[in-house]
Amino acid sequence: MKVLVTGGAGYMGTELINLLVANDSVEQVIIYDNLSRLNYNLFLGLKLQKHAKLTFVKGELLDSRMLRKVLKGVDVVYHLAAKVTTPFAHADSHAYEQVNHWGTAELVYAVEESNVKKFIYASSSGVYGSSETAVDEQSVTDPKSFYAISKLRGEEHVRRLMDKMDTWILRCGNVYGYSKSMRFDSVINKFVWEANFNKLVTIQGDGKQSRSFIHIDLISKALNNLLTAELPRGTYNLVERTIKIFDIVDELKQLIPELEFIFINQHLKLSELKVKENTLVNKTLGINNPKLLKEELQEFLARFSF
User: Would you tell me which CATH number, out of the four given (3.20.20.70, 3.90.25.10, 1.20.1250.20, 3.40.50.620), belongs to the domain 187-211+241-275+288-302?
Assistant: First the structure.
């Protein structure tokens, strides 16, 4: 099978590519990315025998001609490409609208004219906005940031494909964990970096807000397994644990006793979002995490050079 991964050089893309090239059912993997993050780590360290499966195309989501060209012969599309810039998800609405909304629209238009059989869209649990009670797939969406609004609008275009091919919209929790293409603006990654190198963690608000997370290894495994898993087409949440922000710092402090922390705008109670785990989806896609958060953080810290 021939697979196209938009945003293949990104955080999730890099880890997914590693699994796809090792997947015997995949004959060719096309990485479609504009390298806007100047992230070239994907191209380092792959074993020579796996290079034959990979093709890299530098392109934009808004380039409809290039999209139609690269989709020829493709069986499966993973749409991971997006503008994601925490904590500036409330700024530059035009950029989010162009890339995440209209870029997704252009890709869907091109896919509708192709012979693609499966389409997987990585959306965000941010489309629910905020909620003090756990939300599920039936909960009303109420995005608060320009990023989340653009991802929800992207979903509306992707949903058109569900009557035409196997299509899945995955509302992913906050992704964390080591990758050579990791993002350091996501909360756990940022905390681990600060704890390791500065011995000082900065906490926004009072730290009591909860967020739902999923480890990078688990989400890439789930995406890879979706190639063959028996999961009905539809919209699903993809999270594996919900944690209070301050609890992450507590775990890090156990690992680094000298760790200090400071609050920024401690008087503010920031919004929180709890997403209910979909146990059926997690089981179907092989999301099984026996590790405690403390174990994961310890392994994470061990991956730094010093």
Answer: 3.90.25.10
